[in-house]
Amino acid sequence: MKLIDEIVANKAQLTAWRRDLHAHPETAFEEHRTAQFVAEKLESFGIPVHRGLAKTGVVGTLKAGTGNRAIGLRADMDALDLHELNGFAHKSKHEGKMHGCGHDGHTTMLLGAAQYLAQSRNFDGIVHFIFQPAEENLAGGKVMVDEGLFRLFPCEAVFGMHNMPGYDIGSFGVKAGPMMASADMFWIKIRGKGAHGAYPHQGIDPVAIGAEIVLAAQHIVGRNVNPQQPAVVSICQFSAGHTTNVIPEDAMLAGTARAFSPEVQDLIENRLRQIVTGIAASHGAVAELDYQRRYPPTINTVDETELAARAAADIVGEANVLRNIVPSMGAEDFAWMLREKPGSYVWIGNGAGEGSCMIHNPHYDFNDEAITIGASYWARLAEMALPVGG
User: Fold this and answer.
1) Cα(160)–Cα(178) distance, integer angstroms
2) Which of 185, 120, 191, 190 is nearest to 379 (CA)?
3) In terms of domains, do 49 and 191 share one?
4) Same domain assignment for residues 174 and 196
5) DSSP-assigned letters across all residues of 80-124
6) pLDDT, position 389
7) How many Å apart are CA 235 and CA 227, to the nearest integer?
8) Pair (164, 190) in one structural domain
9) Same domain, 21 and 162
10) Which of 292, 320, 343 is the last residue of a domain?
């Protein structure tokens, strides 16, 4: 690997920053301490800071040379509502909250790059360091865009990065086109007619109706979506009744749907609506579908992805840049920024084998060995995107 020497020399400090952030997790739109930490670090590097976009968002702007071309580098700051089960010294100090997705590492890697670039200024143009709140569930990226992120901080391209357990330290996953799926959420309310469990003919059973809806929904992907277009429909909640001998009045189902194109999203929503209303009506019940499109698919543009791949290869070597990765059915709200600007979202290896575990796990921890790699990647990407004399 050809890591940037100045960043490697700062590894101990960067690790301390990351562990401090890990110990003080804050969830969506409550990242006040984290935002203050980020802003103070950026200001100490001599980088002007804008605070308050999307409540707790922070944007630092660094200009070098005479050029006016600008790019955005984005990291997420928020944690999860999750009880941490690790026992190390930097475990969460906030009960029920945990950096279980590695955003503490993402924030630290971008701070490391900002510190280096502020010292070296080996680029010609403008780099916006975007520290985003509320990536988990509440689409803080969309809020930043809606509140004028790219109007206040114009960018010709924007880039994101996420750690990926199961990928070796020193590797990157890069792919043009669909990288991560959309995330649609839905809730189904069924209104039947309550009855004694011994006399079901006197009621309209919402549990039985819900069971039919669950089974029928599984056929949407298998029999309606083109097999060459990945999609998922998962019903993850089924709630009804309070005792063993009473047929309840109501039942509630909830779940998620994933796809890589708006056309498949439309198909899933329309078909699910037909299933819900049709099955309920056939039993004399009424059902309502609340279908919400929370996150669009994350779609990388070709030129920007090639630039990201070349920057990664410059740091870890071409053999460690995995270009034929399988897109994830998980979702990412960096997609909202990619709807506005060209750009690319990459995965950085968080380690594989014994001792590693997937994100959103109470035993997860960001691998500190990735910090200098990710920071070097960010810095090299900025230098390659905005070359001196380019």
Assistant:
1) 14
2) 120
3) no
4) no
5) BS------STTS-SSTT-B--SSHHHHHHHHHHHHHHHHHH--SS
6) 83
7) 20
8) no
9) yes
10) 292
- Rounded to whole angstroms, the Cα distance separating 76 from 131 reads 6
* Residue 47, C-beta contacts closer than 8 angstroms, at least 6 positions apart: 60, 61, 62, 114, 118, 129
Q: What is the CATH number of the domain that holds 217?
A: 3.30.70.360
**Residue 149: inside a domain, yes or no?**
yes
Q: Are residues 29 and 82 in the same domain?
A: yes
Say what the pLDDT of residue 277 is.
Answer: 98
Which residues of the chain fall short of a pLDDT of 50? none
User: What CATH number is associated with residue 47?
Assistant: 3.40.630.10
- pLDDT at residue number 230: 95
Parallel, antiparallel, or unpaired for β 157-164 and 70-76? Answer: parallel
Half-sphere exposure of 263 (CA within 13 A, CB side): 5
DSSP 253-276: EEEEEEESSHHHHHHHHHHHHHHH
Summarize pLDDT for 161-182 with one digit per residue, the tens: 999 999 999 999 999 999 999 9
- Residue at token pair 């053999």: 319
In a domain, 317, yes or no: yes
Task: State whether 167 and 251 are in the same domain.
Answer: no
Apex CA 305: angle with CA 6 and CA 377, to 5°? Answer: 10
Q: How far apart are CA 132 and CA 374, in angstroms?
A: 17
Q: 61 to each of 48, 71, 209, how far by Cα in Å?
A: 6, 10, 56
Nearest Cα to 173, choosing from 258, 300, 295? 300
CA atoms within 13 A on the CB side of 178: 19
Whether pTM exceeds 0.90: yes
- How many CB atoms neighbour CB 269 within 10 A? 19
Q: How many domains does the chain have?
A: 2
Range of the domain at 197: 183-292
What is the model's pLDDT at position 1? 87
Tell whether 390 is covered by a domain: no
Q: Are residues 157 and 244 in the same domain?
A: no
- What share of the chain has pLDDT > 70, as a percent? 99
